[in-house]
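Please produce the structure of this protein holding manganese (II) ion.
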Amino acid sequence: MKAVRIIKANDLQIVEMEKPVIGGEQNVLVKMKAAGICGSDVGIYHGTNAAATYPRVIGHEIVGVVEEVGPDVTKVKVGDRVIIDQVTACGHCYACSKNRPNVCGNLQVRGVHIDGGYREYIAVNETDCYLLPDTLSDEDAVMIEPTTIAVQCCSRAQLEKEDSVLIIGAGALGSSILRIVKLYQPRKIIVADIDDAKLEEALKAGATDVVNSKTEDLVKRCHELTDGYGPTVSIDAACVKGSLLNALEATGNAGRVITMGFSVAPDEVNQFVITSKELDVRGSRLQNRKFQTVIDLVKEGKIDLTGSISHRFHFLDAQKAFDLVDSRDPSIRKIVLTFE
Ligand code: MN
Ligand code: ZN
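Below is the modeled complex.
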């Protein structure tokens, strides 16, 4: 079978690989149908993802159809359409014992530490397979994964109706988060970005207020919009230099600040801003078994995952797809690789 492998930074090749066989833990064989391209895939391609190891078959937004199952499999059957959880955990470390496999001490993420889904077949455990709703096409279903990231972040924030929420960044991550934050019906949803077009989209998508942090004083505006108190939850979905300090300064007393960035570049913050308001600063990484939650939200009609895909490429043309990403074409939303 063929696969898209990143040999080393900036070296993408289509390679021939052995078709996986099922057995033991990997008791379900899935034939790939669609796979999304995520910012983290692009980071691994360019060598800027500190977690990744090479060579690597990338891809973690992976949708397919069950082709073969082992004798004891009960969760899925041949012909089922599924999305695959990218997190694999050891099950016995401290994090795993606290039901947080997404930060397992021996974490292996598909497409990052172990081979992912840009290939014709993948063998996985049945527990990592989630049945897709009939209403969602294979291609639209890749959006379930980015949505799990947003659900995870709201869960880490312990979001409640009485919160006022600040989302910094209105790109792909920020807009997924906005979609989920809305479901909590918080008092305010303030979205900040430096791009007016994205802020316009955020307003249409349900933000109550938007701030252009390039032309306006973000912290001051956030205080004005929340009767001087500040948002009680701030989510840093921009993850750029200075965005964390902005979030800390904007957030009101006893609030929560959620970080999502993966940069290892130093960024200055001070203790006073955290201690004086007794802020909870929490990381949100990947997702902790949130696939079923998102699938249920789709089934209940609470979220609509259609309409996010802007470009499609056959997986053998993956180079063209990554070149398009590099062009930073403003029409890019979600790019999907197909396998037919
Ligand atoms: Mn992703
Ligand atoms: Zn573990």
